[in-house]
Amino acid sequence: MAIGSNPERNRAHNRRVVLEVIRFHEHLGRTEIARRAQLTPQAVANIVDELLEEGLLVELGRLRSGRGQPPIQFAVNPNGPLTAGVEIAADHMVTALLDLSGGVRAKSILPLEATGPDTVPDRVTAEVQRLEASLGVDRSKLLGIGVVMPGPFEVEGMSSVGPATLPGWTGVDAAALFAKATGQHVVVENDATAAVVGERLYGAGRQLGSFCYLYFGVGLGLGVIQEGRPLRGAFGNAGEIGHVGLVPRKGKVHYGPAGALERFVSVFALRERLAMAGIYAATVDDIQKLHDEANPTLAEWIDMAADYLAPTVAMLENIFDPETVIFGGGLPDSVLEAVIAALDPLPVSVATRGKRSLPRAIRGQTGQLTAALGAAALPLLDTVSPHLSVSDPVS
């Protein structure tokens, strides 16, 4: 948990700490907030009053426990401001509206036929407004919009699987373009980085301070949380693991772009393999149906993916020393679990220890919404989650 700092110059940080402490524990009294945030009672009292006035917190009443006057409990206001998260993928768009407690208030998954800067901003605007209307809320309740797109940024055409990156965006100020179209504050991020933030806040990484997240988008991305913070890199491109060439446990070794990991281990690679067998799988549900039917082509791909991913997991463990490696994104839970099961035996690494609190690889808990959830968290990073702010050091 983040720790507050009492000097006035850190007041903005302290507000984030107070909100994070309350959000994490669901409801607390002022004394307990002060203890957990390591702030003075007076500082907490002032901040709580401000947050109540701004509609970010609500008062729940008194919690009866023990002797004396029961403490008044405070919680993040579920009917307060909202944020929107939008994932722009090569062939679809995921949109989610979240309240400050992390509750998904509205969501949608729509196909995308065009992904260029001349069409996508208007689609985002229309869909966010449609979801707001479905909730009966006006745009004044929206704190901002997070938009995530597949990387790498400013390196158009690098993707090994072709459509994993979005053509036409090189040199475009995406945040400014989306802000103009929506009339909102917009934050733009790499999809794998947003996905690891989503898993950290709402999924299997909620209790973890350091973990790696292998994100199955159209390509394959990597998000890394180190000491509670996302690793971004100098240009926002940290984690482009899909472009790394690795030797599989068995089978033929490929060199150069043809040997890039996402050419074999990605949703695109799976669809390509299925198409060669005359099978069209456009959605996660299509892939799930194939798995339920024990489709042999899918089973072969799972085995091949595990041959590439087993050394990948060991490499990530040796580089980042994570608590675990989480698998998630645009594949059905059952397929991810089958891939993880097929990793055994994993190569020896620094993670090969007898006493582990978690397996070396686990499945994420937020499914197809992972990147959109992370996107919706982006406008909150300066308000709610000091752990995840990339610009403000924890005191």
UniProtKB/TrEMBL annotation:
It comes from the Bacteria. InterPro entries: ATPase_NBD, ROK, WH-like_DNA-bd_sf, WH_DNA-bd_sf. Pfam families: ROK. Belongs to the ROK (NagC/XylR) family. PANTHER family: BIFUNCTIONAL UDP-N-ACETYLGLUCOSAMINE 2-EPIMERASE_N-ACETYLMANNOSAMINE KINASE, ROK (REPRESSOR, ORF, KINASE) FAMILY. This is ROK family transcriptional regulator.
